[in-house]
């Protein structure tokens, strides 16, 4: 059975030694969806254009959140991110968030992409909560990663 | 139609002035669920006991994350949190996370509770990703809040 | 001759004890101006409207920067900010930044307002530097403060 | 007409992908001037020697501020700074601040040098504000940068 | 037998709810000693005067460290510190560090005073390590606290 | 006589330029001991097993603290840590803390290892202080470092 690499044989948490891993270009894409109301999505989008600073605020939060990943996720390595994008797609009553993170370091950027999505989601939550306190962030997950020894991984159908 | 209080009349983001709101005891409860595999849940729980530091790591991440809320969510007020709890419930192939945040300040702690859940979820994601890269965090949402002028709010059925 | 309150009689830096000061509503307004080129201002404003996320990015940076004041300015007290606004006014070849900070604590928010202006200025600098490396941030200063024992102060003419 | 590289074609903010840029030794020098009163400068300098911890406090603030650049400036890349200096020159009624930042990474350190100057300026502002509330930080700008594909840039006369 | 208040009945870590505790003036004093060599102490003190920025750097580190306490100590409450002092006393081959922290909040500032001492000690360690890699920080401990329901506590003789 | 490399010839603090130093695998081991009471150690260890989250909390604090080193120690370079371990050994009335930090950068990780020990010690202090307010952290020191031009250093006997 597979084991958690973040725990040593005694079960103690550790930041795994990646000294021996090669520096390599690595990319990760993650996404998630804030489910809210049609009214809120209408406030966010008027005629297809972002309204005021609402989406920009969440985008900046996601990008800055990606940089905070090692401060937030206890066993993540601090790395030099070489790029982050956060995109929003407005649906009928939901906002779909996609984040892409890139590095050229010894370890992957899955957590940076997931953190960008989560923090952008928190900023959206904060923006809409006075109008829709019942909004829900769903499906925060990794979609794709590539680079390093493991090569390309894409999310299997049905998960 | 309701408006976003975080944007002024021109659409510019702002940290709303809460000087006039009364200091009051306020509580918020949020939750979410990491969907993973039965194998991962078995690794997290052996005989009903937490395995090593896995859940403790995520719990600490959530509590510390709650304290970082104003650093992460751009328009949140910095407040003196008076207490935070993060609890996990292990299901068949999922981990349910619940966080409670408390303050006695001029503004609510919904975002602190939601941030605790999201960051605990990120730490779980990080812990399990080598075993289950397809894990997904779902239903990150506010369950209940009380305190201040608005009184008690509980999540309506069906949302 | 007046002395620096941030240094004790031996010249050692300290965070002054404000325990005896009353909690009170306090406001500070600060401003500054990024001098750049007419080309850059035209990129920032097209027909009077902000272009994309440029100004929103700087506004969010300023608001988040205000919250980071005690992390940046060594002898500043950590306080619960009750509100922050950052506004931009576009001139011919300059961007004027004004920030207002509010609290209800035992110490003033001059540094929070000045930090909001400086950090918004840094974000503008970062945005425009590929087009105008020679941009300059000038006149970062306090315009007005009120609240607490000292009452209202407004910047004297000619300074 | 030149465009802002920090915005994509739709105007959305992004942290630009620098994966393809070469790692190289890079240096940036920035400066600025705090205009205050002759009385304040006399307090800062007695017989040519720094008084107590005043300038040291501002110097440390500037150095630590440079390290905080990616936390403050939303679209800046987190990088491994390889050195930072902050120097002060006392004039009649002003303090001139110069900062030099160095790295061997894929992107320049202009923002780190500018942030060091701005944060040192904020710390000076904080130190002197009880004596001179009307102090002003001016001319925060890049003086010189070198390294990477762009080679050496020096500030043109008259800007 | 006494129990750890930071763990609930199941052993899970939590940030204890202090909502019911009264806001009160509270003070804590902590200290510690860096043991190094006579040569290093001579470098730090020449004729009784601090040399350059060495001690100022450590003092600022301690004061800023106190403000970072809730970011560092997982179960500490974020509080509004109302004052921090860090003092050094130079002995033959050691530097004694004393820190005083003050607040008017619902919980004590023991950890803030201990953190100021520890972080000032780390900065001293960093300053001297090229000359004395074997320096040691000892006796980091609480000396006195007062305020709140518990009243005054002073360290017992012989501990 | 040796000089502090962190100060320039005028005594001003600086972050030393390490651009010319080679990137290399580097390791540092540091340790320290929290002296408390047998009662507290019994609470931490029941039958050899960690009780609840107490030690995990301190371990996570130490690992996260190591990542915060450049934020805490003013003249430390920000680096990409490639691994951190924190271990506890329970004695009769003391807890011994050992931390190992690794990097492949241009500068050593002594301060990261020392910070991990200090912050883990602070978290233990916080955990036990309600039961033993007189606990003391002692012997925080570097035990061994290797890598880079200086090769292997081990702590001499008798220091």
TrEMBL record, chains A, B, C, D, E, F:
Residues reported in the UniProt entry to bind substrate: 75-77, 111-112
GO terms, biological process: Mo-molybdopterin cofactor biosynthetic process
Organism, as annotated: Haloechinothrix aidingensis
The reaction(s) this protein catalyses: (8S)-3',8-cyclo-7,8-dihydroguanosine 5'-triphosphate = cyclic pyranopterin phosphate + diphosphate
Pathway the protein acts in: Cofactor biosynthesis; molybdopterin biosynthesis
Active site per the UniProt annotation: 126
The family this protein is said to belong to: Belongs to the MoaC family.
Organism superkingdom: Bacteria
GO molecular function terms listed in the Swiss-Prot or TrEMBL record: cyclic pyranopterin monophosphate synthase activity
Pfam families linked to this entry: MoaC
Annotated CDD domains: MoaC_PE (cd01420)
Function comment: Catalyzes the conversion of (8S)-3',8-cyclo-7,8-dihydroguanosine 5'-triphosphate to cyclic pyranopterin monophosphate (cPMP).
InterPro entries in UniProt: MoaC, MoaC_bact/euk, MoaC_sf, MoCo_biosynth_MoaA/MoaC, Mopterin_CF_biosynth-C_dom
Enzyme Commission identifier(s): 4.6.1.17
Protein name: Cyclic pyranopterin monophosphate synthase
NCBIfam families: moaC (TIGR00581), PRK09364.1 (NF006870)
Keywords: Lyase, Molybdenum cofactor biosynthesis
Subunit structure of this chain's protein: Homohexamer; trimer of dimers.
Encoding gene, per UniProt annotation: moaC
EC category name: lyase
Domain Molybdopterin cofactor biosynthesis C (MoaC): 15-148
């Amino acid at each position: 059975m597979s084991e958690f690499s973040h725990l040593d044989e005694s079960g103690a948490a550790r930041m795994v030694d990646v000294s021996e891993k090669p520096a390599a270009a690595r990319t990760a894409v993650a996404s998630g969806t804030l489910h809210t109301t049609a009214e809120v999505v209408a406030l966010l989008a008027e005629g297809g254009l972002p309204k005021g600073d609402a989406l920009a605020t969440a985008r900046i939060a996601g990008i800055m959140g990606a940089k905070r990943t090692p401060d937030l996720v206890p066993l993540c390595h601090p790395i030099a991110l070489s790029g982050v994008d956060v995109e929003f797609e407005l649906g009928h009553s939901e906002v779909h968030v996609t984040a892409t993170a890139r590095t050229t370091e010894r370890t992957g950027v899955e957590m940076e992409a997931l953190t960008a999505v989560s923090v952008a989601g928190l900023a959206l939550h904060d923006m809409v909560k006075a109008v829709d306190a019942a909004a829900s962030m769903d499906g925060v997950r990794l979609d794709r990663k590539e680079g390093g020894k493991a090569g390309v991984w894409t999310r299997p159908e049905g998960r």
